[in-house]
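Quick one: structure for this chain?
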Amino acid sequence: MESPSTTEVGQPEKLVPLKEACEILVKHFGYTDGLWDISFEFQIAIGSFGPTPEKSLPGTMAVLSRLGLRKTETLGPHTVDASLFSIADDR
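Got it. Here's what it folds into:
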């Protein structure tokens, strides 16, 4: 049986622009007023990285651990005005 998707394993099927992700979160949390920006939390580690201990080099690793919303007072390229959405809006 053929898979309905032609996307290869490991490849993103659909990507969401940051502003649209912010809109989704504003709707998810039911915010109906204020300006909101998408925010990210990263975890950063430092240490030795390499394929073997002899080939290790000092380095850093950063991972995205959480995303959320941050209230703002200024419009930016990814800012969402929650007053444009209502809880009944399901577009």
